[in-house]
């Protein structure tokens, strides 16, 4: 299990990558197997057989009912899996709001945008930081912070880092009243000053 | 490449859903009304065509090769879709700090170009290795190279990197050619 601060670094692409690898592997193996059969390496007799083998067709005919049920179930499973996968890739990354008080009647919710803006504005005040962007990621039970910092050229990373940890993040934790806030910091070094178009 | 893998997953997911739906619908339709013929896909024609083709026929081999190549490409895309962040030391528990290889290359490049007698420099950086290629019109490689190695090492030492990348410096100078 990855620590939450590491998981907050970037949106996870594990499911997408694993799926792409599985499809790629299946396509590669099937294509290679068909080529091997066609080249006659598994016997010249087999290579001359039709692709839709009469033996296979006869077997399917003999087991007609189970084959039909299996085909329908397989089709429905593929439909559900494909739709779930497509929905997953299209879903936006979650930015949970923080519930500071859950007691009925006086619920207090801080929206993810408000937290992010406050922390980013605070981080931009640190010497050497030219731009900062914060986002709240993860789920509502275990929210985490992703903080991107663009440092000016010549800024000392160790100093910036120290101040972000002791000042910015501590203030954020205190004002939100949480003990810990898993944080992923992405640093861009030697960034150009932001040019405003007038 | 990460976006590409996401788009590919979307397309493959939609294709899987479509093929699954067609399979279920066609099988159920033929089961319920065996005499009326196919509903959406002309599968009896496909079946007859597949029964004619043998594994040796050119079109079968062509399709098999295309499928294998497509699979190889998918594997390649998936393999290149990983992040290549440079890890920095964590300042405290529960905090993870990363930077990009491009950042590393940018600051090393700026420091190298600021050195005397360096006309141009290009830097490529990965978490494991920093490669510098400098052009100098006035100094030979034997003179400039040790100095540049020191500069790059000092620049990297300033950063709280978890692992020091290996540094390689190449100087391209016309003085070495004469």
From TrEMBL, chain A:
<protein>
    <recommendedName>
        <fullName>Alkaline shock response membrane anchor protein AmaP</fullName>
    </recommendedName>
</protein>
<feature type="transmembrane region" description="Helical">
    <location>
        <begin position="21"/>
        <end position="45"/>
    </location>
</feature>
<keyword id="KW-0472">Membrane</keyword>
<feature type="transmembrane region" description="Helical">
    <location>
        <begin position="65"/>
        <end position="87"/>
    </location>
</feature>
<keyword id="KW-1133">Transmembrane helix</keyword>
<keyword id="KW-0812">Transmembrane</keyword>
TrEMBL record, chain B:
<keyword id="KW-0812">Transmembrane</keyword>
<feature type="domain" description="DUF6286">
    <location>
        <begin position="69"/>
        <end position="171"/>
    </location>
</feature>
<keyword id="KW-1133">Transmembrane helix</keyword>
<dbReference type="InterPro" id="IPR046253">
    <property type="entry name" value="DUF6286"/>
</dbReference>
<keyword id="KW-0472">Membrane</keyword>
<feature type="transmembrane region" description="Helical">
    <location>
        <begin position="59"/>
        <end position="79"/>
    </location>
</feature>
<dbReference type="Pfam" id="PF19803">
    <property type="entry name" value="DUF6286"/>
</dbReference>
<protein>
    <recommendedName>
        <fullName>DUF6286 domain-containing protein</fullName>
    </recommendedName>
</protein>
